[in-house]
Amino acid sequence: xxxxxxxxxxxxxxxxxxxxxxxxxxxxxxxxxxxxxxxxxxxxxxxxxxxxxxxxxxxxxxxxxxxxxxxxxxxxxxxxxxxxxxxxxxxxxxxxxxxxxxxxxxxxx
Length: 109
Hints:
- It is built from 1 helix and 6 strands.
- A 3-stranded antiparallel beta sheet has the order 1-6-3, with no helix packed on it.
- The two termini are 17 Å apart.
- β4 and β5 form a beta hairpin.
- The longest helix is centred in the N-terminal third of the chain and has 17 residues.
């Protein structure tokens, strides 16, 4: 699970909001899905790059967290091309992409 240093937030209103958000996120996403964190770095633009995920299932969802050098760099996830081994991504330039990749499900993943 992600560690948030909520107690380090000095503003009590902001601290309470983070607690509510974390609780909601935990119940709605993490408890109903199987996600892992990934970070991919590209030295140039890539088109339909296949990247290993080692999840043992075909991921259906990506929660993209950040793209370094986001000024003008676009990222496209090719969901239809995901398989049990790889996710597929295109970028318009050099960047680092951070994301949670997995599958959200009400029942089994």
